[in-house]
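>> received
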Amino acid sequence: MKTAQDFILEIPVLKNSDQITKARQILRDGCFREVYVEDAKKILFGYIDLTDGLRVTATKSNITVEGFVKDAPMVNPEDSIEQVAKTMKRFHTDSAAVVDVMHHMRGGVLLSDLFPVIISRNELHGTVASFMNKKVITANPADELQKIQSLIIESGFSAFPVTHKKRLVGIISRRDLISTKRVRSVVAQHAHTTIEDVMIRDVVSISPDEPISYAAGLLVKHDISRLPVLDGETLAGIVDRHDILAALA
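>> returned
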């Protein structure tokens, strides 16, 4: 049986006294959506994520990460990967901290690494319509980037389908805002750049009537974390890795 130990990675760790700009740089330059924080005794203190990295737009700041820290998903090295995935689903994160009995970090595991293995050895039942999130907030391609940044911070959602005249024309995520230097500069300077300038146009989508197992396969094939759901040309919802984990037999 595969366990957390089989997928453990060395993962960046911050001190709770580190500045938020340091956390933002790690999140911007790496593959991580969360970064973990230790206290002075090197005990796991919590985590911050990409949304927290968007809250401070200044390139220099004395604000520390301590005020942004949330309770962290923790797993043991011997936990099965299904147990690990359930912990991530409960916290709605894309990673989990692997800790010892004293809550010292030994590393981390990523949902993107576990997901293909989990869906390959577990049955998925039902259609996309049964598991998709129907409460979808959309963006307009003419909206300015500052608006989508505010939506991400206020809503807790990490990505937004972009629609024009009710048709899907793209998707934009918090990663798009934090990882591109030009976009970061625009947001920091409150410049007038629109979502259309930076959104992803080549969007993989799915029908609500398709099996949820097919949605899982598309996520793995294209190495993406979510799929807009289209009923004809109308956006009906969105389905992500966490939704698919709910369909496990």
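>> The CA atoms of residues 69 and 100 lie 20 Å apart.
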